[in-house]
Amino acid sequence: MKNNLILKIALLSCCFVTASVNAVAGNIPAMAEAFPDVPLSLIELLTTIPSLFSMAAVLISNKIASAIGYKKTVLAGCLFGAAAGTVPVILNNVYLILIARAIFGFGCGLISSSLLILIVRFFEGEERSQMIGLQGSAGGLASLVTTFIAGRLLVYGWNVSFLVYLFGFVVFLLVLFFIPHTGSIRTAAADNGEHKGKLNLYFNGVIMFVSVLAATLFVIKCASLASVKNITGSSTGSLLVMCISAGSMIAGAVYGKMTARLKKISLAVFDLICALGFLTASFASGFFMIALGAFLLGFGYLAFVPYLQESVSSYGAEGTAAVLVFQGLGAFAAPYLGSLLSVFSESLSVQFILAAGIFVILALIAFVTESRKSF
Predict the structure, then answer these.
(1) What torsion, rounded to 10 degrees, do the Cα atoms 214, 217, 218, 224 define?
(2) The pLDDT value given to residue 116
(3) Sorting pLDDT into bands at 50, 70 and 90, what band is 125?
């Protein structure tokens, strides 16, 4: 029992690398001031480019793991994440920082894909579902802690906040000493190779893409929205990201109970919670309301992500890879969604209302499609 608990802690500690991607999202306004000649969309890519390279890592992680094993793949991801995450402390060039963030994202992708496989390997049945939910909760806690620390470090300069990624070296040691070697794990997909099964797999992938695309918009725009509403402060952006993380942490803890009770309408409810988060922030006139919107967005986000991951679990490694790729692509493309919405209105409040509309549409789609499934 004790060894099992240590194994769970070691596995969940990986979230302190993968979930810390947005820890420096609060840096965007400060970096925009530090690099006035650099387009804002490029600076925002510093937050989202890790997702693109995380997707690339997911695509090849199975081949890497087949050669060196899943534990060593996670260890490599931790080293990439810790080293590349920290190096911007000494860089003063946006393009070099972009390269470092890309390598950081690649490390996160190696960890994410292998972590899901390891959970499937070490746990079964209800305990496995619990671990999937706890993974989301641990991710929320990790994001909350790392964002808080990054926010405190931001006072000393935008570059100093990148020291938060030193956490990666601690995670490396936990994985090294407390996760057993597994070699290359063969994960057989369920007998769902028919055309209809493939369509279902990629349909869920597209839903993941659109959902993460819209949700990540909140992450990269919430600090700017607060500034427009004259809710100022050097750490306002970090505090809002912390509120998102707090919602995510609680969602992961209650995910299993919520899906057991809501059943077929689970995904629709999670989407509507995200929509409510956008609307609350849009109409906010003070910090409390915009923080509440951030909390609701984080809650809905870390509820629909594991739901969609579980929905493709019967496809084995192929399903895991597909959903993670779509998830990473959605996070990467979020700044371009902001550019698209700005065509309709330059007002961030209106853009948040439009994003809420996206989640309402997703909720309607989820209600129709999920109600047709048999449980």
Answers:
(1) -160
(2) 80
(3) low
Domain ranges for the chain: 2-371
Rounded CA-CA distance 204/306 in Å is 12
Query: Top-level CATH class of 2-371?
Result: mainly alpha
Burial class (CB in 10 A: 0-12, 13-18, 19+), 308: buried
User: Residues 104-115: pLDDT tens digits?
Assistant: 999 999 998 888
pLDDT bucket at 305, cuts 50 / 70 / 90:
confident
| Residue matched to tokens 């004259």 | 230
Convert the pLDDT of each residue in 51-81 to its tens digit.
Answer: 789 888 988 888 888 888 889 999 999 999 9
What HEC string does 69-84 produce? CHHHHHHHHHHHHHHH
